[in-house]
Task: inverse folding
């Protein structure tokens, strides 16, 4: 039986950059091209206790739309369309046929229906419905939606193609939208020139690049990276409080494989890699890989990327271990492997990566594994260094921020690490696993001891968990 929608889209308008900027062509870096044909939009949703009066909804939408127009003025590349340039390489053309759609919607619900907005059942309706990019040359590169709830709360949804920006760029765009809505100017101008990340001429690869590091495709090809949830995959968002992370961080820093200060990313990543591998009950001689993004921002790229660099500036790195060895060691073993993998990505590694990608593209080769969700690995994205809770539309801090997957899609081993509303080191971690593996994860006493809370539906699993402690040198 079809589920009745509770969100109504009342109006859709197309926002265009100024005609004075037309036509204009934006070249893409190899980091952009890695992501250019992923056929789904990145989707984020911000929830606010806006207190909107029902009589002022039209005025609110007009103000948001006008601010969005001004925001697109300084991020005009989002209003363009992909096209094949000479040689078949993708670029962005900004012309009169582009623009981004803005959806104005209302919800027949109140935010207080969900005491925990991680459980909001309307989230997939808070962005435009079609999350798959059918024809990448015709599809808009970004879309926005504003939804007003019966209580006066507001949800702002934003979806963008990975072709022109990574997650940091998307959150910077949203932050700029709020700043223009509030005061008409932005605190940080975007830097749109991608030439800083172009390959050397000729390309020079001084450091061997493992083929599994980059998961990319030839521009013009397409695949669906997310298998359907009908394959038995389940997604869940866990909340790790700061004191839980500090406790685990101390455990790692005192462990037999200690290496100095552990970061919160290394700490959570080690816990997830170890616990999920145990839950999967993999063969002891089976390789398991923990793949994670490493940013070229913040000093890794030379010369330094400008603070407002708008584009993809991350690559994947991986730590690889035998399953049996991973689960038999203290958690500091997993953390040390991830730590060492992060340290390998320096300026010369990044330069070699860009040049290696250039050679692969020139040869028309596909790179990466055909199925990254193979039931053995974890693939992680971290958004904790993004300004996700710095949005200011005059409604106070967001109540909740969500980085959501396409409706009905998931990926076995996909992980998102997000900042939590309470700030500090507290984190929301979204994990997708096969149903039986998720059940075992929730029964893992070592894993759940670092969760201050589990939802009511999961407490019986915790109560029935196997009562054994993770020992210093064994599971």
Result:
């Amino acid at each position: 039986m079809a589920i009745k929608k509770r969100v109504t889209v009342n109006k859709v308008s197309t926002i265009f950059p100024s005609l004075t900027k037309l036509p204009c062509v934006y070249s893409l870096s190899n980091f952009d091209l890695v992501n250019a044909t992923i056929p789904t939009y990145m989707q984020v949703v911000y929830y606010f206790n806006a207190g909107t009066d029902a009589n002022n909804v039209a005025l609110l939408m007009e103000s948001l739309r006008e601010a969005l127009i001004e925001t697109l003025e300084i991020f005009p590349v989002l209003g363009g369309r992909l096209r094949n340039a000479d040689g078949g390489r993708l670029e962005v053309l900004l012309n009169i046929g582009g623009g981004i759609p803005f959806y104005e919607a209302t919800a027949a619900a109140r935010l207080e229906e969900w005491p925990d907005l991680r459980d909001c059942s309307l989230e997939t309706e808070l962005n435009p419905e079609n999350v798959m990019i059918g024809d990448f040359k015709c599809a808009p590169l970004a879309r926005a939606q504003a939804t007003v709830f019966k209580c006066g709360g507001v949800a702002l949804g934003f979806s963008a193609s990975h072709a022109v920006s990574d997650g940091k760029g998307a959150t910077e765009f949203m932050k700029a939208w709020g700043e223009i809505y509030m005061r008409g100017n932005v605190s940080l101008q975007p830097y749109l020139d991608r030439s800083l990340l172009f390959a050397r001429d000729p390309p020079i690869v001084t450091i061997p690049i493992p083929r599994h590091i980059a998961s990319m495709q030839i521009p013009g090809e397409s695949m669906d990276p997310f298998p359907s949830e009908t394959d038995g995959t389940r997604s869940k968002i866990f909340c790790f409080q700061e004191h839980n992370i500090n406790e685990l961080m101390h455990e790692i820093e005192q462990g037999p494989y200690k290496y100095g200060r552990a970061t919160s990313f290394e700490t959570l990543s080690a816990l997830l890699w170890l616990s999920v591998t145990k839950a999967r009950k993999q063969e002891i001689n089976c390789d398991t890989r923990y793949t994670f993004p490493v940013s070229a921002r913040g000093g890794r790229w030379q010369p330094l990327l400008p603070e407002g660099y708008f584009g993809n500036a991350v690559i994947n790195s991986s730590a690889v271990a035998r399953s049996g060895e991973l689960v038999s060691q203290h958690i500091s073993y997993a953390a040390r492997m991830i730590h060492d993998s992060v340290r390998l990505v320096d300026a010369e590694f990044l330069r070699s990566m860009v040049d290696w990608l250039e050679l692969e593209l020139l040869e028309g080769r596909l790179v990466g594994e055909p199925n990254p969700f193979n039931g053995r690995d974890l693939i992680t994205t971290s958004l904790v260094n993004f300004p996700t809770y710095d949005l200011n539309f005059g409604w106070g801090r967001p109540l909740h921020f969500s980085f959501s997957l396409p409706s009905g899609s998931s990926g076995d081993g996909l992980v998102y690490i997000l900042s939590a509303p309470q700030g500090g080191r507290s984190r929301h971690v979204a994990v997708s696993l096969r149903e039986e593996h998720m059940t075992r994860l929730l029964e893992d006493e070592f894993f759940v001891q670092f969760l201050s809370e589990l939802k009511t539906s999961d407490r019986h699993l915790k109560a029935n968990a196997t009562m054994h402690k993770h020992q210093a040198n064994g599971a």
Remarks:
- The chain has a mean pLDDT of 86.
- DSSP finds eleven helices and 15 strands in the chain.
